[in-house]
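Quick one:
INPUT:
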């Protein structure tokens, strides 16, 4: 768990990077799934990053003065309500929230419309996630207009709106030791879930049975939820990149691709493993698997400080393109296959993304048109793959094979650390683990 002091420190850092002005950061709304049933509630990542507060109907307001010491941290949250708590459970209420989460002031969220225009008056700049939620854009501009209408009484309305994400994305990109501790734990739980899936899988099972094993492992270790809908894709389903139906029978002789990771205290893990349903790779499956594994190894060795964001992708691409030529999937030289983008018939996504509170985490990939250099503290995925759909010009033994291998990686001072290495990925490791399974 990240201590309250760290959240206060983040708010201070944000305030010190703001000019004199006011930041307004609401959490996510509750969403109806059907009639009276809601989706499981998930807070907004920016709001949580600055507060550690998990309840819905809450808004963080930071008033930044000319210097850091003058910043004021205010929370609007649901009021205490014993009647509602009988139905929905505990809520902090403004008073306890102020104590526990270290705010200077707290108010019931029902007073937002009354208090916020007062706080915004005479502030030159409003910082918010402009365009993120149309309803909030309207509210913010509505408050500005209300202040304008009071100009005769001498108050000035803000004249500028800045996107607060420019500052927050950069802060979120570099993980603290405490964040990394949570991410390591999420990675460990998720690696265990992949091991469990390998041990439990048998021909004749359904994809959803394996999905249930993943969920079982996430929840029994305290992870709140999957970080994204698990992909459990047997055989040809692995060639559907966002396959989430997870309701097909697993066939002897097919591969199973699982892309699944848990969310623990807000932080995501994102792991893909591909393994044979019957525990033994066929020669064609092994060829493509080894190719993707080599591509991933090349990409991981390109994760080090100073290398550009794109270096791992380019390293993976070179290995894959050469492999596609060697296996008769592409023709020509490695350079022409890359330049013509012919490889995209079999590898159509990129090799990774930032990882953190969001599975595709906040943070710029380019600056001034250039890929940004990797720096210690950044966390990213490395996830090359190969997806072969049936086609006349494709050797038949590769048809319907889809492979992806995805790990979570931290950039360190000297290179990188793979956070998800407890999930087996060499052919030998996988076959041995699955061999063991037969004996049980
Ligand atoms: N699981 C989402 C991704 O790999 O990007
Ligand atoms: Mn990913
Ligand atoms: Mn993934």
């Amino acid at each position: 768990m990240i201590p309250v002091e760290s959240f206060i420190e983040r708010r201070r850092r944000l305030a010190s990077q703001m000019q004199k002005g006011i930041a307004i950061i609401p959490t996510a709304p509750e969403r109806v799934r059907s009639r009276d049933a809601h989706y499981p509630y998930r807070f907004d990542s920016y709001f949580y990053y600055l507060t550690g507060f998990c309840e819905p109907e809450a808004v963080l307001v930071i008033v930044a003065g000319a210097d850091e010491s003058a910043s004021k941290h205010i929370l609007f949250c649901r009021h205490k309500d014993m009647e509602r708590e009988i139905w929905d459970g505990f809520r902090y209420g403004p008073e306890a929230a102020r104590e526990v989460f270290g705010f200077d002031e707290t108010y019931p969220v029902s007073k937002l419309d009354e208090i916020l225009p007062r706080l915004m008056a005479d502030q030159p700049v409003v910082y918010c996630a402009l365009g993120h939620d149309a309803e909030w854009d309207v509210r913010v501009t509505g408050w500005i207009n209300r202040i304008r209408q009071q100009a005769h009484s001498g108050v000035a309305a803000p004249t500028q709106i800045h996107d607060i994400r420019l500052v927050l994305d950069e802060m979120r990109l570099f993980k603290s030791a405490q964040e990394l501790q949570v991410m390591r734990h999420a990675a460990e739980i998720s690696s265990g879930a992949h091991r469990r899936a390998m041990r439990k899988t048998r021909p004749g099972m359904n994809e959803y049975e394996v999905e249930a094993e993943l969920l079982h492992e996430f929840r029994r270790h305290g992870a709140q939820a999957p970080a994204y809908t698990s992909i459990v894709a047997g055989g040809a389903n692995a060639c559907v990149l966002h396959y989430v139906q997870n309701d097909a029978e697993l066939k002897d002789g097919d591969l199973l691709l699982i892309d699944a990771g848990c969310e623990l205290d807000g932080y995501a893990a994102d792991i893909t493993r591909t393994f044979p349903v019957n525990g033994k790779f066929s020669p064609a499956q092994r060829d493509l698997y080894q190719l993707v594994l080599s591509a991933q190894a090349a990409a991981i060795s390109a994760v080090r400080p100073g290398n550009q964001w794109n270096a791992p992708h380019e390293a993976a691409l070179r290995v894959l393109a050469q492999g596609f030529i060697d296996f008769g999937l592409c023709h020509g030289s490695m350079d022409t296959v890359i330049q013509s983008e012919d490889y995209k018939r079999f590898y159509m996504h990129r090799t990774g993304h930032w990882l953190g509170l969001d599975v595709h985490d906040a943070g710029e990939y380019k600056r001034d048109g250039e890929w940004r250099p990797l720096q210690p503290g950044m966390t990213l995925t490395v996830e090359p793959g190969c997806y072969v759909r049936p086609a006349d010009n494709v050797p038949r033994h590769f048809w319907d094979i889809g492979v992806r291998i995805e790990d979570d990686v931290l950039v360190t001072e000297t290179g990188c650390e793979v956070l998800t290495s407890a999930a087996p990925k060499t052919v030998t490791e996988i076959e041995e683990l699955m061999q063991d399974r037969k004996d049980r």
